[in-house]
């Protein structure tokens, strides 16, 4: 594997691997081979600063069979504005599933298995563009994933339009070189091959059958063209990231050389590479032989499997003849299985895969969730995750030991979860590993009867759960013992649905779906289980109270508007106060949440009320004619509603109406000043005690809203915004019209009574 960086290369750089390998047609002796090059490209994506997995940009590639060289071209670029600074881009690679990353250093959930991803860094410093290549020789065929992201997000809340963010763009292209005529070894049949030179290794492959317990690869009759001793290197398997388990052996001399594998991957092509370490111009002829050790599986009959499936869906009636016959048949079959289990190397348990939803699968054992486990042969449960759409979730396996089923106090049920092939020798080595995969161990015993395993983003493959009974004082005392273990296995998009402080989001890259947790209230981690920076319940309640109760500062503005006969304006302020209060009560990240209607509706009404409040306030200050003012009220509200529907968070949705209303106000004030031949408003007290304080509060509110809000201080900075805006409205509202009298409820009631009395007197006089 190799990597490099530099300026953008020409197209010739993509073809460099072709220059290093032989091309042309040849025979299957290895003298020459036919290589086919393929190029795969995906559209570029704009990178984001990292705060959760949804910020990382995913690229999904499929590497074809017989690929001998894989080259990725990673191209990163940035904008040219002054806001673009030096930046480091992190790129992660993984075979079979999306990479499990942790840039923030948070904790993973308990019982989760995490293996670090392979990653590189790309730095954008002087140049605006960077091209990096990564080479992988003999890569594993199948799905490969790349994830790229920027460093941790600063947490600042930026208003769209006030600042211009720098755009960082990343694109990944894949170039593969594969053999079109790879020699195929037939199991048990020696095959003579020729290695032309050290620069031209020989590639071959052999198909591993199902239920292969072991494999043995041998090199025989090694002879060089110069009649010298052979020096060969044999590599079995392909490279996978982040971990690679290739088996390498060096053979010297004419003595037969062999390499043994335990639990090779079932029903897959195993890649073999043989290269000469001798003289540069010397060819080597060698005989290769691959042989397998078969494993005889044992399981219940297919008739019983379907019988159990039907019973689980619609059980027989109690007391019926069918139920009695089925019970007797099950008892006889179980007795027969126990008597014959010693002749099998493993015991298969029939499993049904139930697809519940996207990245959601449940595995149901046909013979019930409880499986028998003994020490003679492992019990095997197949977990099918090879659809290509299962690697974007979390595989959960739980074991529960029935303590009454094990008579031995020192007995332990050892389990292993592995991909591609099962572990068949747990009682001998207790090593949870196969030929090319490091499995995940589990164990239950009388003192610890429960065990859970969480595999984050399991790779696309057939997964196996192997269970076997082990006695620490010796296997002899375990031969007659049998344990009952209840097995629960399922695939879920997010483990525990991200908990109470997280939201499980389904992400998509083209046709591939995967899930991630977006945490809130200071919680973090893969499943939102890290409470290092979590807000306490008291802090959550305080944040909710500040953001909701601060809206009641509109009450003075409403009172001033009603007192001065601005009833339409008072209605708008009441609308804004109501929806802002309940929007922020629904928008809280913690447990102090109350939603009286749909969240999106509350948000839209809050934004609409805020902008319309500013619009009507400035128009009210302009002192235009009433008919014109109300026309502008309605027309402006309709236009604001339309613009908010198009872009709810755009800064010009607020600044546009404000600027237009200010133009109208200034024009009206100039008109009034010219008409009266003095400054308008004419009173210095109006300027000093009302206008200047109101304008100052408004500017401070805009500054806090646009430049000071972050995710951590949002609950009090936004509350300050509420208070300042409400107070500025109370100061900026103009005095009532001179011809309007102040509210006097007693006088108006008396007046009404007097009018009614006068009317009656007039009617009486007429009659």
UniProtKB/TrEMBL annotation:
Pfam families according to UniProt: DUF3522 (PF12036)
Transmembrane region(s): 542-567, 627-646, 652-671, 687-708, 714-733
Domain EGF-like: 490-529
Disulfide partners: 494-504, 519-528
UniProt entry tagged with the keyword Disulfide bond: yes
Keywords: Cell membrane, Disulfide bond, EGF-like domain, Membrane, Signal, Transmembrane, Transmembrane helix
InterPro entries: EGF, NGX6/PGAP6/MYMK
Principal cellular location given in the protein's record: membrane
Signal peptide residues on this chain, from the entry's feature table: 1-26
GO cellular component, as recorded: plasma membrane
Compartmental location: Cell membrane
Membrane topology: Multi-pass membrane protein
Family to which the UniProt record says this protein belongs: Belongs to the TMEM8 family.
Name of this protein: TMM8A factor
Record organism: Caloenas nicobarica
């Amino acid at each position: 594997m190799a990597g490099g960086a530099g300026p953008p290369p020409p197209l010739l750089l993509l073809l460099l691997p072709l220059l290093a390998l032989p091309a042309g047609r040849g025979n299957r002796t290895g003298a020459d081979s036919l290589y086919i090059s393929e190029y795969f490209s995906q559209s570029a994506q704009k990178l984001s600063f990292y705060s959760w997995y949804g910020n990382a940009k995913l690229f999904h590639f499929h590497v074809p069979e017989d690929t001998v060289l894989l080259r990725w071209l990673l191209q990163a670029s940035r904008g040219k504005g002054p806001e673009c600074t030096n930046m480091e881009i992190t790129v992660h690679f993984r075979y079979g599933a999306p990479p499990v990353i942790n840039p923030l250093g948070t904790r993973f959930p308990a019982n989760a298995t995490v293996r670090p991803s392979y990653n590189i860094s790309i730095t954008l410093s002087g140049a605006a563009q960077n091209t990096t290549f990564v080479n992988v020789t003999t890569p594993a065929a199948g799905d490969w994933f790349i994830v790229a992201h920027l460093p941790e997000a600063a947490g600042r809340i930026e208003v769209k339009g006030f600042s211009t963010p720098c755009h960082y763009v990343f694109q990944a292209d894949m170039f593969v070189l594969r053999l079109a005529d790879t020699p195929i070894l037939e199991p048990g049949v020696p095959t003579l091959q020729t290695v032309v030179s050290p620069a031209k290794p020989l590639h071959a492959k052999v198909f591993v059958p199902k239920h292969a317990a072991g494999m043995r690869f041998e090199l025989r009759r090694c002879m060089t063209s110069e009649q010298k001793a052979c020096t060969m290197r044999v590599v079995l398997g392909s490279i996978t990231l982040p971990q690679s388990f290739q088996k390498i052996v060096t053979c010297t001399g004419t003595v037969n050389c062999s390499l043994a594998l335990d639990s090779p991957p079932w029903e897959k092509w195993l890649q073999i590479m043989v290269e000469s370490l001798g003289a540069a111009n010397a060819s080597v002829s060698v005989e290769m032989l691959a042989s397998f050790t078969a494993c005889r599986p044992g399981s219940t009959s297919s008739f019983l499997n379907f019988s159990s499936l039907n019973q689980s869906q619609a059980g027989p009636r109690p007391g019926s003849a069918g139920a009695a016959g089925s019970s007797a048949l099950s008892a006889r079959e179980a007795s027969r299985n126990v008597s014959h289990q010693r002749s099998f190397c493993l015991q298969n348990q029939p499993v049904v895969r139930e697809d519940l939803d996207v990245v959601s699968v449940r595995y149901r054992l046909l013979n019930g969730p409880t499986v028998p486990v003994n020490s003679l042969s492992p019990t095997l449960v197949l977990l099918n995750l090879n659809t290509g759409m299962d690697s974007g979730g979390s595989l959960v396996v739980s074991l529960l030991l029935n303590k009454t089923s094990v008579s031995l106090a020192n007995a332990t049920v050892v389990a292993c979860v592995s991909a591609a092939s099962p572990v068949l020798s747990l009682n001998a080595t207790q090593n949870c590993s196969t030929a090319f995969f490091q499995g995940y161990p589990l164990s239950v015993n009388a003192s610890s009867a429960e065990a859970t395993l969480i595999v984050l983003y399991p790779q696309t493959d057939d997964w196996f759960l192997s269970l076997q009974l082990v006695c620490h004082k010796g296997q002899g005392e375990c031969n007659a013992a049998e344990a009952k273990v209840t097995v629960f296995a399922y695939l879920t998009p997010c483990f525990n649905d991200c908990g109470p402080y997280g939201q499980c989001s389904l992400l998509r890259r083209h046709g591939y779906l995967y899930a991630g947790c977006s945490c809130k209230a200071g919680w973090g981690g893969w499943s939102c289980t890290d409470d290092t920076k979590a807000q306490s319940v008291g802090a959550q309640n305080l944040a909710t109270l500040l953001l909701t109760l601060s809206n009641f500062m509109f009450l003075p503005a409403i009172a001033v508007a009603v007192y001065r006969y601005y009833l339409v304006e008072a209605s708008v302020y009441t609308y804004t106060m109501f929806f802002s209060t309940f929007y922020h009560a629904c928008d809280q990240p913690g447990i102090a949440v109350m939603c009286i209607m749909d969240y999106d509706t509350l948000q839209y009404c809050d934004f609409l009320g805020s902008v319309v409040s500013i619009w009507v306030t400035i128009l009210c200050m302009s002192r235009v004619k009433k008919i014109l003012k109300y026309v502008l009220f309605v027309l402006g509200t309709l236009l604001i509603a339309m613009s908010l529907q198009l872009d709810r968070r755009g800064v010009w949705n607020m600044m546009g109406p404000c600027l237009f209303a200010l133009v109208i106000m200034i024009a009206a004030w100039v008109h009034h000043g010219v008409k009266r031949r003095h400054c308008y408003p004419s009173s210095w007290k109006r300027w000093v005690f009302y206008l200047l304080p109101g304008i100052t509060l408004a500017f401070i509110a805009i500054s806090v809203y646009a430049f000071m809000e972050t995710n951590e201080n949002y609950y009090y900075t936004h509350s300050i915004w509420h208070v300042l805006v409400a107070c500025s409205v109370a100061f900026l509202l103009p005095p009532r019209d001179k011809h309007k009298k102040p509210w006097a409820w007693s006088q108006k009631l008396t007046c009404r009574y007097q009018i009614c009395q006068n009317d009656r007197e007039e009617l009486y006089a007429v009659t």
